[in-house]
Amino acid sequence: MDDYLKRLAEAQDLDEVNALITRLVQEARVSSAPRDQRRLFIRHLVLNKALLRDLQTHAAIDHLFVALTPEMWTELFSDAVERELPKVLVDVVNEQADVDHRQILRLVPDNNPKVLFAIIKSLSTHIDKQKGSECRLGGMRTARIMADLYNLMAKDTRAWKRRSPPSCRIDGDRIAKLKEDKVLDQLVEAYETRINQLQRIDLRRSLADLGEERNAAPRMAESDFNRTFLVESPLRIGISSANASDNHMRSKEQGGKTLNLGIDLQMEGEEHTSPPLTVTARRLAEPKLILRSLSMDFKADFEASSKGDEETQSKLFFAYRRGGDEALRLVKQALVHVGIVRDHSDAIISDVAAFTGGGGLELVTSSKVQQGSGLGTSSILAASVLKILYRLSNHSYGNVESEYPGLYDQSVLLEQSFGLNSGWQDARGACGGPSAIKNFYAPPTDGLPAPERQFLSGIDESLFAKRVVLFDTGISRAATRGLNEVLDVYLTRDPHRYIAIRESLDIHDRMVQALQQGSYDQLGDLSARYWQLRCILDPGATSKALQHLFEHPSLTNLSEGGLLTGAAGGGFALLIAREGREDELRKGLTALRNMAPYAKSSVVSYSLNRTGISLSERP
């Protein structure tokens, strides 16, 4: 049996593994194999390198349960499972192994609570020994596994009679309290929630390692008192993110790639393209805070002054943290982020007056498109608001010479602070440089992802704008849902969907090459495949109505292919027009307004923007 076990560990493909499984099962049936050999069988099966490489571990486990019944598995291997599986799952987390933990848990006989509890203890002990980013990122995958373990434990009403859930370093206050009070039915949801919390903590710590970016008590310069400041920003067309590889965790562990460009828009009724986002700021003579959103879908006002009850006004200011007030939460949190308003302050007008030398502050934001468009609106708005506030605070990030990359890292942190799971590419798509089209690569790292910028020069921008048609579907979507769905595929290594993550990285490189070569037919083919991969990763990214863009002959005869930008589910689409049929495609898309789902749709004129997020000021 030793020889077969060694061959199982070194087997090079699924067929070889399956043949060895059959042989080893036969050996186990006719002889009393020592416990160590049975443990090695489990280990070599789950961690076989060829199976991990080919994402075929689940298929080998399928074969195992064809070769013997679950009852026979329990009889022959239950003791080995109890002793070895906890160690194997620790190795899966520690080595970032490409195997779905849910497939491994199929090896637990009858979901035996004793084995499940042993796995919980083993993972908790392992994470407790980790430090820094290894603890937090390893903790994200561990939290995902814990959610499934506690879900399985809940199916046995006697599972916790003589057991108490062990503490774990990643738990946080809520999970710790649930365990202490034995409110175990809420642990599944609590661990799922904890995943993004751990990612936000790691992002904050990674940024903190670069140095403190908030002035302890920022002050506006007296020379700026009578000036008005204006930030104008492009939006971002995301051609590829290798399907969310710019997620913080994925970038740190495997590296991230994105291909995007900054654009100005010409909406209906406008005579020319212009930056779609603006932010204005000015000091007020009286102690006042005026915030306005004039965005397409978010129109709101907040006003507070020294004439009102300051504590009440402060509570209203922070109401966004209790839900609602979505239109102004980004601007409010940015004021806290920069240090102009103290966190949890009960005297916001005093804070603003201290910053402005006894005066007040007015901030107005405006956007031509809806948030949830897939054009990075929220992230770029975050960077734009931060840029103007950093300029008012005389921080270096307010200057174009020193804004990169710090301003963009801070915008990610700002969004993460109120629950948006944005990636690092969203705001970076608006940064300026020699070319509007940018290819980013962030190498794997233990610290903060540091994307390397490559400006793609030599591309005919007018030809790009002619062949690449931008279509506003008029259908809004929630970016966080889609990104969380893809993150879950990454954390679980779902074998049927994780393969799309791998292929997306390869597709990305080929898209860059096609664009550099001016091969729009190839770019269309690659975009079509990229979109298919996105829908594998997140089936909710599309719908019957959206698929009309990519499947109906009236459009496919006019386009080489296309995709929806961002997390999808709606927003903007890119379609690569066939050469010579650009106008026909635009007319065909315009005609979609006669369909109910596309009643608010439009073909949008755009131009490429190399300037990036620009700040001007006037007396």
Q: What is the C-alpha radius of gyration, as a whole number of Å?
A: 27 Å
Secondary structure: number of strands: 14
* Gap between N and C termini: 85 Å
Query: What's the tally of helices?
Result: 25
**Mean pLDDT over all positions:** 93
Structural class: alpha+beta
Q: What is the overall shape?
A: globular
* Proportion of helical residues: 40-55%
Beta-strand percentage?
Answer: 5-15%
Main beta sheet strand tally, sense and closure = 8 strands, antiparallel
pLDDT < 50 stretches: none
Key attributes of the depicted protein:
single chain, 619 residues
What does this structure look like?
This protein is α+β, with helices and mostly antiparallel strands. Helix content is 48%, strand content 15%. The protein is built from 25 helices and 14 strands. Helix 11 (187-208) packs antiparallel against helix 17, helix 16 crosses helix 17 (406-417) and helix 21 packs antiparallel against helix 22.
